[in-house]
Amino acid sequence: MSDHQTVQTNLQTLFSPLKIGNKEAKNRIVSTSHAVAWDNGTGLINDRHVRYHERKAAGGAGIIMTFGSASVYEESAASYGSVSLWNEENEPLLKDLADRVHAHGALIMSQATHMGRRADSSVSGRPIQAPSAIPEGVHREIPHVMRTEEIPPIIQSFAEAAERLERCGWDGIEITSFSGHLIEQFWSPALNHRTDRYGGDFAGRMRFSIEVIQAVREAVSSDFIIAFRMTADPKTDALDLDHKDMLDIARTLDDLGCIDMFSISGGTGATYDAQAAVVPGDTFARGTYNHVAKNMKEQLSVPVLVAGRNLDPSQAESALTNEDCDLVGMTRAIIADPDMPQLAQKGEFSRIRPCIACGECIGRLYSGMPVICTVNPAMADDSLDDLTPAQQQRKVVIVGGGPAGMEAARVSAIRGHEVHLLEGTDKLGGKVYFAAMASERPHYGRHIKWLEQELDRLGVNVHLNTKGTTDNVLLLNPDDIVLATGANPRNDHYVTDVELLDGKVSINGNSKVLIYDREGKFRGSSVAHFAAEKGASQVEIATPLWSVAEDLDEMQKPELYRLLTEKNVTMSPNKHLRTTKEGHHVLEDMWSETKRDIEQDEMIIFIGYEEGDNRLLDQLKSAAPELDVQLIGDAVSPRRLNDAVSEGVRVGSSL
């Protein structure tokens, strides 16, 4: 038996069909529901949505679930870029999307919800609604208490949304309580203080969800799938509900005989740390919620889907054979590479572009921005997915082996060019290589390893330990030159984070480290945590911003703060780093002007004090003005990793 056949056999459960209600999924891989915020706040689907979900179906996923937090009720203030299922204007593209997904043999379903107190009235102007006047710990807005007579129209709106989806050719609906939405709020004794028929004891608190599910079942045919998504572990006591309570709730809903599938995950939106667990990042274990999904599966009568850090096909297969679940949500893995299912089925594992768990996708959404993917720019701009062969082969010389240069080399080689990549050190990856050394980001370096494998597969000529000098570049007689030379520190007198991570600067029990961070993202805090892990006696992260990691999204910040607190890292916001006339460094509070003298033996590391290295650009233009020289990545200006990768694709596509 060949290796290819062995791989196929080893994934036989993952690629086996599954009956769900009266329909059949061709395999067990699911892209679960998520918003993308591409609607410009209108709640309307556009062609970009359609192409995005069709692309995942074309890549081989068995079920495409769409539109996270899709709103069923016009009077409810939606958020997170959710689609309005109540709006009939969406029907033409709903039909088009269903047809295009079906053409690839996949099933298509939409999430449907009322967000309750988890919504936000700041944009819509409509008051948010909830069972009781208890604000959420994250959004903090006091909701309008729903009157008894206001509840039936909301129940009916769920039924009408399901009816619309079936009329438009969809296979099913996913009703959700997950992440602290309205249904979960009714369940919670801590959040539901009602005295009418929708509150009080367990039966009263369950009534709203039961009536929603029954209304939906009555509105659609028996062929239409009804799924239900819920948390199995809220990761907080703020709901006064634990895993056992959630199991009781799931059994009660299962007994209705209306639900065809349960979708199980964890966390809730009630607190910052529980919200971070909703889309668990790299500090969470692989298969974070598989064990609680298994408990659910053992006691429920219908298929169970699990979502939460099942990262690759072999892990998904193990979850299935271990009977943790019947279907596996692999959403971020599919965002990183929509062809993951097809490549896995063919046994081409090394070609699958890996998710690096950086959180840029969901993090941007929670920061009010459209979703993108750090390692797959085509997720947000599908024109970058079309790498057509070049009409004429050219010799392309790329200087700099960081992510921008590597991606430009990969795309240029795919298009058929002869590519030479010059890297001045003995390793590829640039600063990402060193950032991946941080213990809280174990998957961060997977993209660099994948790029290395791809460059080798595509025959890129990689020249390590080769400086990007004018002579070295021109010696190769290039037709095109791409400079991905990165960024350099603006001051050579201080230790850099790369020197610390690389071990060129040692840390011991006597070390005192001050990180001065004006970026306000992940990098500064990660370096502070690294120094503390290495045993420094004193670590402080100071910033001129309102808070440490000010611009880091709220899905990543809770875990990062936890790590810093556990390591006793001092966090000092609103601080200026000053140098006195005598040459001494002081840390000065921005508002009180109180000062702390920085000791002579304190190691100072600056974060955010860099500038693009474009020296070679002028030298080459002077030496060979006839050549086309392009500058990309941090060499243009120091930015996020996804910007560098995106520029690498764009430049490679244009050559």
Automatic annotation (TrEMBL):
In the N-terminal section; belongs to the NADH:flavin oxidoreductase/NADH oxidase family. Residues 14-347 form the NADH:flavin oxidoreductase/NADH oxidase N-terminal domain. Signal peptide: none annotated. Keywords: Flavoprotein, FMN, Iron, Iron-sulfur, Metal-binding, Oxidoreductase. Its cofactor is [4Fe-4S] cluster; FMN. Residues 395-616 form the FAD/NAD(P)-binding domain. InterPro entries: Aldolase_TIM, FAD/NAD-bd_sf, FAD/NAD-binding_dom, NADH:flavin_oxidoreductase, OxRdtase_FMN_N. This is 2,4-dienoyl-CoA reductase. The lineage of its organism: Bacteria, Bacillati, Bacillota, Bacilli, Bacillales. It holds the Pfam family Oxidored_FMN. GO terms for molecular function: FMN binding; iron-sulfur cluster binding; metal ion binding; oxidoreductase activity. It comes from Natribacillus halophilus. The keyword Cell wall biogenesis/degradation does not apply.
